[in-house]
Amino acid sequence: PPMVAPLVTLTLRCVKWWLRQRQIPRTKEGGLPTIAWLLMAVHVCSLPETHERALQGCQRPMAALLASLASFFRHYAALGCLDGVLQFASDGSSSEFRRRSPADRPKGDRTPDSWAEFAVLDPTREGSESLNLAPPLPPATQLLLAHELRRAGQRLERVPARCEASARESRHVLGEVFQPLPEGINAIPSSVGCAVGVLLLWGEDLKGADTRTIECGMVELIVPRPGWAAPFLRRSDDRSELHVRLCDVDERTGRCHARRKVSVVVLCPCHVICRVHLEKEGRAMRLDAEGLERLRAMRRHLRTLDARQQ
User: Fold this and answer.
1) Other Cβ atoms within 10 Å of 197 Cβ, number
2) How far apart are the C-alpha atoms of 195 and 174, rounded to whole Å?
3) In 10 A of CB 285, how many CB atoms?
4) Which domains does the chain have, with CATH numbers?
5) Which of 62, 133, 138, 155 has the most CB atoms in a 10 Å sphere around its CB?
6) At 64, which helix (H) or strand (E)?
7) How much is the average pLDDT of 106-130?
8) pLDDT confidence tier of residue 132, bands split at 50, 70 and 90
9) What is the pTM for the complete model shown?
10) Which of 9-23, 52-66, 247-261, 275-289 has the lowest mean pLDDT?
11) How far apart are CA 159 and CA 152, in angstroms?
12) DSSP line for 97-123
């Protein structure tokens, strides 16, 4: 139908705007490339259920766009929807997402694994020339992406399913979905002049076998791996060192204190979820509203993953 192509185009533009506004990690930082995100959006726009929700917009462009965006965020926020292979037909006429199954694991691997292995195959290459556009995503990065996808989807769920949403309501919801974050909030610097607050995936080895929790800490020193000169560290980096002082956080108030029983621990960039802003409050500190929301939401999501794994 004539309305489909413009709707897909608008959806892709909004996804790109969301990536920028919410500071989603870029390719050079170890995140998914923009082309992978756009192919993910094209796939969702082609699904029958997305068409149905868009048609419920009563031909109103804004309602149809909100429905299309809601489908995108809802689809990839669901558990398991970033665990598999997204592939397009050679002529681009269709796409398919094949979830990873236990049979896809290497023989003899019986380790419980709640983390995704995501692949987006380049639609311009086939057969032996097939190319995966998605780099391996460390568990900490997966938590960040899952949080941002769920956050956007939850806000878009506030829009009425049919035609009841006013223009003001729609603009308000979009304003929340695309609320900008400070530049670099999700980037990992290669040096620090003063302590930097971070959220960490703690107690997790690179194979995902140990008990894990999400902790708040202050990075006091960074030692980049030999030869690294960029002002940021890649999220998959397991050689650079981050000297972190862990903090105990009261989830009700956001107040936090440096942990006394553990002095400074040495971690890697692959353990970092994101940076957070810590505000001085007397002898203690307090997580800002965005950081506290992230901590609470990610801990809930991690508990859900752990429950599914049992």
Assistant:
1) 20
2) 34
3) 21
4) 3-178 (1.10.1410.10), 188-308 (no CATH)
5) 138
6) helix 61-77
7) 75
8) very high
9) 0.90
10) 52-66
11) 12
12) EEE--GGGSPTT------S--EEEB-T
